[in-house]
Amino acid sequence: MLKDKILNSLMYVSLITIKDIMGKNGFNALLNFSGLAKYKDEFPPNDDKVEVPLPDFSALIKGILEIFGEKGARSILYNLGRRSFNVILEENPALLGLVGLGLKVLPKKKRIDKLYTIASKETNKIFGENQNYYSSDEGFVFEIYDCFWCKGLKTKGPICYAEVGWNAEAAKWATGDEHGVEEVLCRAKGDNVCKIVISHDPIKDD
Ligand SMILES: [Zn+2]
């Protein structure tokens, strides 16, 4: 189960990247719409304390969905996921165990597996047990049974595109390659879990 508070850093990274994507006016309108005007001038600190109410984070994602519709929200959230990985890497890499992994000495598949294993363990520790990670014939798989991205949302299609983007960027950071990432099940559309599958092999350019 997720805790009722989330990591300050997740809210910080989400706010800063959404502001960057939408511009100041659009961002302020989103906050007003979502009942989150208190975050206009003051973001939570980018630290590892768990102090931001989960409902605030859920209201932010819901606001994006309601303003932009599912399709528009997907690209914003995907972008948010990709960018937030880099913000964490630049500003606070110890947060999800992204330092001292010794990835370079490993073959590429092992690098991704190690990174996902550690990030998943850290996420469970920080947010409350909410996911399983494993590698199988399907690919690298995350089964998220209590997902903070789509908590309380109802959608037609999968909506955890921030998770998709985050995992795509993580795989790229670990190996230099783009991997196919797909959310094949999503709680927001009525499935029991959010299931993200990342291809074992990189996407070929040709
Ligand atoms: Zn989800």
Describe the structure.
By secondary structure, this protein is α+β, with helices and mostly antiparallel strands. The chain has a single domain, classed as H-NOX domain, CATH 3.90.1520. Helices cover 48% and strands 17% of the residues. The protein contains 4 helices and 6 strands; from the N terminus they run βαβααββαββ. The protein has a 4-stranded antiparallel beta sheet with strand order 3-4-6-5, with helices on one face. A hairpin with an 8-residue loop joins strand 5 and strand 6. The longest helix has 38 residues. The protein is globular and about 45 Å long. The termini are far apart. The mean pLDDT is 94. Bound molecules: zinc ion. Zinc ion (ZN) binds next to loops. The site of zinc ion (ZN) has 9 residues, from loops.
Secondary structure layout plus pairing:
Layout lengths: L4 E3 H26 L16 E4 H38 L16 H20 L3 E6 L2 E6 L16 H15 L3 E7 L8 E9 L4
Helix pairs in contact: 1-2, 2-4, 3-4
The structure holds zinc ion.
The site of zinc ion has 9 residues, from loops.
Per CATH, the superfamily is H-NOX domain
Q: Describe the largest sheet.
A: 4 strands, antiparallel
The geometry reads as globular
Q: How far apart, in Å, are the first and last alpha carbons? A: 43 Å
Side-by-side strand order of the widest sheet: 3-4-6-5
Q: Ligands bound here?
A: zinc ion
Mean pLDDT over all positions: 94
Structural class: alpha+beta
CA gyration radius, whole angstroms: 16 Å
The name CATH uses for the topology is H-NOX domain
| Total separate domains | 1
Query: Which stretches of 5+ consecutive residues score pLDDT under 50?
Result: none
